Amino acid sequence: MKRLISFSFMLVLLLTLVACNKEEDNGKNKESNAVALDDVLTALKEEMATHLEDVGMPDALKEDGSLDGYIQSDLVHPSEDDPQSAMFLERLGIKSDDLEAGFVIAAMMNINSDEIILLQAKDDSKVEELEAALKKELEAQTSTWEQYLPDQYEKVKNNIIKTKGNYLIYITYENPEALEAVFDEKLK
């Protein structure tokens, strides 16, 4: 009888340890595989601020996290003072329900084609659809800027659209490779 109780106790203890270890592993895997899009956004804005400061715009990244000369919209959780988010969703033809997170950084003035769109699809089934929306946005930017301002059209021609897992980025910018490098680094 003592052996049966000891064996049962050991079995319960072993199963408890295995279950706890499995929960810890799952937590670690989720943390290492999931990247907060806010962190990627912050790193992109820091890179952009460095470029803006290099061309003579000191303190381009304001204390509130905004970039001087740019608007920023949260496509999933817009604030009350962000009417652009609905406009961007409509223009892109995407639904916020398809996104885990999404942001747009765009030039405030309509003489600058800079536009960075950062998306995290809610699941794998939405990635292809979101990528198609980004390609349509590139077509729209191309149509606008090729007739409007030639120097801005050059930026549009160098646009980068990239997908990594459930993460997508759209970059129309003076130096798109620099922002692409930030995206790649954050999503290693």
From TrEMBL:
Keywords on record: Signal
Signal peptide: 1-21
The protein's name in its UniProt record: DUF4358 domain-containing protein
Protein species of origin: Lederbergia graminis
Source organism phylogeny: Bacteria, Bacillati, Bacillota, Bacilli, Bacillales
